[in-house]
């Protein structure tokens, strides 16, 4: 596993607010051995769905980039689907949570849970 600092090694950008929220969640649990992992998996009504979670595993072929002290891991099968994507954290009156803006997604389902 190679870790690049603040680069687009993974092809994904983790915004400052997303990195800060991920770091706060990890600090709250007292964990500094985990990475934020994004995966693209088959599923949902549009064909593909994102999985975003903390992971203490290192998978063969992982591409890892560090943003403000948070490691973002993308497995080698998901990298092509994630090139140019941005992960943000939104905290507003209407919505709170991590969001993914992916220029590779040509469409999504009505519920917004999956893409193609």
TrEMBL record:
<dbReference type="Pfam" id="PF01521">
    <property type="entry name" value="Fe-S_biosyn"/>
</dbReference>
<protein>
    <submittedName>
        <fullName>HesB/IscA family protein</fullName>
    </submittedName>
</protein>
<dbReference type="InterPro" id="IPR035903">
    <property type="entry name" value="HesB-like_dom_sf"/>
</dbReference>
<feature type="domain" description="Core">
    <location>
        <begin position="14"/>
        <end position="113"/>
    </location>
</feature>
<dbReference type="InterPro" id="IPR000361">
    <property type="entry name" value="ATAP_core_dom"/>
</dbReference>
<dbReference type="InterPro" id="IPR017870">
    <property type="entry name" value="FeS_cluster_insertion_CS"/>
</dbReference>
<dbReference type="InterPro" id="IPR016092">
    <property type="entry name" value="ATAP"/>
</dbReference>
